[in-house]
Amino acid sequence: MALGRSTGRRAVTLEEGAAPGAPSCPACGEPLFVWLETEGWGPREDQVVDRCENCGLAVTRGAVPAADRAVAELLGETNGAPEVTIRAANTASLQAWLGAENWAALRPGQTALTPTPKAAELLLARRGLAPRRIRFLAGPGMASMWQTLLNLLTFHRDFAAEAVGRRLHPRGAKARAAYVIDALVTVLAAVPTALLAVLLEGAAVLTRRGGVIEITAARGRG
Question: Which of helix, strand or coil describes residue 12?
C-alpha cells in the first residue's frame, strides 16, 4: 500500500498527490516529487532534481531512467557479477539535507541518480542481489561534507576544484569580484570548515546518515 500525505481529514496516496504525468521512481514505482530547484550552477542552471518520498531515491528531471537502466547505472562496471561492492552518494544523509542544492554530490558529468540504502536495496533486488553489508564511509563522506560546507559560503559551487581546473572564466566586474571573494572565503574557511566537516560527518556516520555508502551484495540470502 502506498504511503500517503495527511490532508487533515484523510491521508491521500502519493499517486493522488503527484502532478499529472509525474515520472515514476525506478526503484519502487512511486511517483517522484520536486526536491530541489537550482539556479546559477553554470551547466546546471535551472536544474530540477526530483525525489521519491517512499524510498528516497533522487534523480535529475528529464533524466529518469527505466528500472533496468537505473540498476545498470548503480552497478556500473560490476553489472552482471554474482557478488558486487558499490559506492554511492546517500540522498538520506545529513550533508544532503544540510546542503540541499549545494550538496557536493550533485556534480555535472556524474550519474543523475543518487540512492538511499533503501532505494539501492530495491534496485539490487531486481538483479537477484541482496545486501550483505552496508557501510557508511567516513573518509569520503568527510571530504564531501567539507565541500558541501564550502559551497554554502561561496558564489560558485566547488570553487576550488573549478578554479584549479581552469573551468571558471569570470567576465565582467561582478563576476571578477565574486571570483575574488570566493578565493578569499575558500582560503580563510578551509580549515574551520574541514574541522566542522569531521565533527558533522563523524556524527552522521555513527547515526547511519553518512554521505557516502558502500554496499556489498550477492545473489541469494544464504
Answer: strand
pLDDT at 1 over 50: no
Question: Hey, where are the domains in the chain?
Answer: 11-219
Task: Summarize the confidence of residues 72-95 as an average pLDDT.
Answer: 88
**β-sheet bridge partners, residue 6:** 11
What cell numbers appear for 6 in the block?
Answer: 495527511
| DSSP characters over 39-100 | -S-GGGTT-EEEEETTT--EEETT----HHHHHHHHHGGGTT-SEEEEEEE-TTSHHHHHHG
Residues 123 and 26: beta-carbon distance below 8 Å: yes
Residue 90 pLDDT greater than 50, yes or no: yes
Q: Count CB atoms within 10 A of the CB of residue 221.
A: 8
Q: How far is residue 201's CA from residue 149's CA, in Å, rounded to a whole number?
A: 11
Closest CA to 210 of 222, 202, 219, 199: 202
Average pLDDT over residues 186-208: 96
pLDDT at 2: 47
Whole-prediction pTM: 0.82
Residue 218, pLDDT > 50, answer yes
> What are the C-alpha distances in Å from 39 to residues 129, 150, 207?
38, 17, 32
Measure the CA–CA gap between 57 and 28, rounded to whole angstroms: 9
